[in-house]
Amino acid sequence: EVQLVESGGGLVRPGGSLRLSCAASGFTFADYVIGWFRQAPGREREGVSFISSYDGSTYYGDSVKGRFTISSDHAKNTVILQMNSLKPEDTAVYYCAIRGGPILYTDSRLYDYWGQGTQVTVSS
Question: Residues in the chain with pLDDT < 70?
Fold first, then answer.
């Protein structure tokens, strides 16, 4: 059984930082893409950032470029999202997701497994 366990969400003031972590287990993909989506109330799920185990290539959504950094420890099947300079518009539930294969797709329908989500709230 594939499991994705997220941690690190919470409440932070604008301009602050948070670090999200996702530990993946139970999958058998030789190559995979793992990363983060987010969904705010009344909005569609949005691709935030992804990393490929094949070559380490990364993707960042336009709204988070320069502020968020994704990294991974493939030996531990863990992915980290460091979020800096947080804004109120970053408020959402953040979901970790994984798909087999090396291509950095941003369509949530192409991801096979999902975590339970962790709430990030940016507010003064």
Answer: none
